[in-house]
Structure formats: C-alpha cells, structure tokens
C-alpha cells in the first residue's frame, strides 16, 4: 500500500513557519472500523522538504505517534517566500506520496503586531485609570483643595 499524501497547512510566524500535518487515512478495516495509520504502524516517520529561491532543503526525518500534529521551522529570513512539502512513511512501508507544495512568506510583521497590541493595551489601561480617578474624585473621596484650619487664618 502507498501512504499519502498527508494534509498540510502552513502559517507564518516571526522568522519561522508553523507546519500542521494530518496523516493520510488508511483503507484498512477491522470489524467495520476504519483503522488509522497509527493503529496499523504505531509510529510513522515524516520528512519535510523546505523550498525557497535558494533551492530545496530536506529536513532531518522525524517520528510521530499522533494523527495530527504541528512543528515549527525556525531561523528563516523574514519577508522571504518558503514552500513546504511533507512525506509520510513507516519502517515497514517506504512507499509514499508527498503532499502538494504549500507556500507562505515568513513574517516580520508578527513582531510589529505584538508591539501594536502592547501600545494599544497601555493606552486602554491609562484611559481606564484616568476614568476611575475621575470617578473617585467626583464622588468626593479625593479632595484636590487643601483647606487649612481656621485657627491659622
């Protein structure tokens, strides 16, 4: 039997891409129940091939015992386009079909997004504190004018 192709989705993160992999379904049944590849092989190998303008780079073979999982490819150049293809195989079955290529641009924008969220949060907190102080002052709990005792007049 030929394994694959797996279902692959990728999203960008700062200087990296997050690869989500869902193993292909098997066609093996046991008592009417469709078995997963993990049920059959217990452990599978997967290879990720990363492609950019610089060429293709096969990453080291890794193992999984999960039907769906994620992995992060780090140390990438921001604003550069990367494509990923994943191939799944088992120790007893090396016949496989790789996934189609999925492409994304590694982002630097995510860091800027974190900065914008932090600034917006700080502004909101400042406005909230100002509103609370204004409310407390209006209620008369904070007196801004200092009154001296009559004996000093």
TrEMBL record:
It comes from the Eukaryota. Gene3D superfamilies: Immunoglobulins (2.60.40.10). SUPFAM superfamilies: Fibronectin type III. Residues 2-105 form the Interferon/interleukin receptor domain. It comes from Myiagra hebetior. The lineage of its organism: Eukaryota, Metazoa, Chordata, Craniata, Vertebrata. GO terms for cellular component: plasma membrane. InterPro entries: FN3_sf, Ig-like_fold, Interferon/interleukin_rcp_dom, Type-II_Cytokine-TF_Rcpt. GO terms for molecular function: interleukin-22 receptor activity. This is INRA2 protein.
